[in-house]
Amino acid sequence: MIQVRVSHLSLSKMGFVLLLKGTADPRTLPIFIGAAEAQSIALQMSGTAVPRPITHDLFKNLLDCLECRLKRVDIHSLQESTFFARLLLEHDGLEFTLDARPSDAVALALRCDSPIYVALSVMTQAGIQIDDKTGKVVSTDPAAPHHPPVRSPLTALQAQLTQAVAEEHYEEAARIRDEIRRLDHPHSGN
After folding, report:
1. Parallel, antiparallel, or unpaired for β 2-12 and 82-91?
2. Yes or no: is domain 2-138 CATH 3.20.20.100?
3. What distance, in Å, lies between the first and last C-alpha atoms of the chain?
């Protein structure tokens, strides 16, 4: 596992991109995330206080009340261009894991001051090198393996929609469908 830190959060033409930079590895893992998760991460990174807790604050408060500690976040796999993460939690000396979306896991890790790790296989598949001065993607090692392009948010959402329908999570499917429509028609007013 490669320890990473949140290096940047930005809005591109394709949506919000979370950049996780290796602390001892030159690669950065770009992950497209939703607007709500991007807002949550941005609020925490900027130290902005909100009058009422948002979802990730609530989850952190719940962990605190239950005396449960978030030991770390692992982004452990990449399947069909979708990243998968898990939370490693500890309560009364017992460790257990919960599956999570990487964006939610990172938002929570920032609030809990917990480390974030990326599996070597994930970084090998999707990691990129970014020039610190120009911000452009570079390849300093000609022998480095070719990294497949990170898919667009629209493609990612279409895969998530297919999975939600297959798993009969229809409310989630409807939410994803609406997000796809918004991305397909950004100036429709809806």
Report:
1. unpaired
2. no
3. 41
Q: Is the dihedral of CA 16, 43, 102, 177 positive or negative?
A: negative
Q: Record the pTM.
A: 0.71
Q: Give the residue from 80, 105, 76 showing the smallest Cα distance to 155.
A: 80
pLDDT in tens, 2-49: 999 998 888 877 788 899 999 998 899 999 998 889 888 998 988 888
Counts for the chain of helices (H) and strands (E), in that order: 6, 9
What is the Cα 137 distance to its own chain's centre? 19
User: ∠ at Cα 150 (144, 151), nearest 5°?
Assistant: 150
Structure tokens at 20: 């996780």
Q: Which helix (H) or strand (E) holds 111?
A: helix 102-112
Six token digits for residue 128: 């990129």
Supply 12's token pair: 């591109």
What are the sequence ranges of the domains in the chain? 2-138, 153-184
- The amino acid sitting at 111 is R
- Amino acid, single-letter form, for residue 46: S
Give the angle subtended at the CA of 85 by the CAs of 135 and 45, to the nearest 5°.
50
Identity of the residue numbered 166: A
- Residue 154: phi and psi, rounded to 5, are -65, -45
